[in-house]
Amino acid sequence: MESNIFNNYRDWLDAQKMPKGKRSALLAGLELFAQNGYDGTSTAQIAEKAGISQATIFKYFKTKQDLLMDILTPIIQNFIPMYRDDFFDNFEKHSGNLETLIHFVVNDRYKFLKENTDSVLILFSELLINPDIRKLFSKLVFDSRPVFTKKVIKALQSTHQVREDFTPMETIRTIIGQLLPYFLQQHFLPETIKNEDEDLESIEKIIINTLHK
Questions:
Q1: What 3-state class would DSSP assign to 189?
Q2: CATH number at residue 125
Q3: Domain hosting residue 106, numbered range
Q4: Phi, psi for 41 (deg, rounded to 5)
Q5: Measured between alpha carbons, how far apart are the two ends of the chain, in Å?
Q6: Long-range CB contact pairs, 185-192, < 8 A, 24+
Q7: Closest CA to 178 of 152, 211, 147
Q8: Which end of the chain is less crowded, N or C, counting CB atoms within 10 A of the terminal residue's CB?
Q9: 212 - beta bridge partners?
């Protein structure tokens, strides 16, 4: 697997073979959709940001919606699965005790969220309103469940420290329920973040206390 060569979606996109104008439009759309939202971004703004004409945008994308889907579809179908598989493989390497595993999960997933802020913000905003994106993302979650159960839940249970009444979905909600709000807090309310390391350590403790027998 070569997912470690990419730090974020931008790096992954740069490595894909496509015309320069198309890549510029995708990168500009990624940034502007994350900053202003889909409805708050015009193709004229994307063209200006990308340093291309609107005609070039419509050469590669029939509509602004097509541009959005061309950003999010590879993220859901290619980029996230690569990092998912890499995460699962590394998770097994950190098995041993609950504290070690949760420390890895919190720091690895938080790093992923920060390095892909634009992609994550667009994805979550579109999940609320776009049925096509919800369908793609639901398939990703469904396809990930067997591997998650086999590797992550198995590793957690091997510590003999996790509550037996916790289902895989409850475990996911416990972890995401702590990490995602903190990620959004850092993005929208950065002035409220005083010490990131201490905050992440606190998140680890909350998750451990919730999962621990």
A1: coil
A2: 1.10.357
A3: 63-211
A4: -120, 130
A5: 36
A6: 186/114, 187/117, 187/121
A7: 211
A8: N
A9: 162
In a domain, 68, yes or no: yes
Within a domain: residue 203? yes
How far, in Å, CA of 211 to CA of 115, rounded?
A: 27
State how far Cα 67 lies from the chain centre: 19
Domain membership of residue 170 (yes or no) is yes
- Kindly report, residue by residue over 122-140, the tens digit of the pLDDT: 999 999 999 999 999 999 9
Q: At what angle do helices 117-129 and 64-74 cross, to 10 degrees?
A: 120
Q: What is the CA radius of gyration of the chain?
A: 19
**In this structure, is residue 1 part of a structural domain?**
no
Query: What are the pLDDT digits (tens) for 44-72?
Result: 999 999 999 999 999 999 999 999 999 99
The CA distance from 189 to 183, in Å, is 10
8 A C-beta contact, residue 23 and residue 14? yes
Query: Do 84 and 142 meet the contact criterion of CB atoms below 8 Å apart?
Result: no
Q: What is the mean pLDDT of residues 200-208?
A: 97
The domain tally of the chain equals 1
Residue 6: per-residue pLDDT: 64
167 versus 117: the higher-pLDDT residue is 117
Q: Which H or E run contains 74?
A: helix 64-74
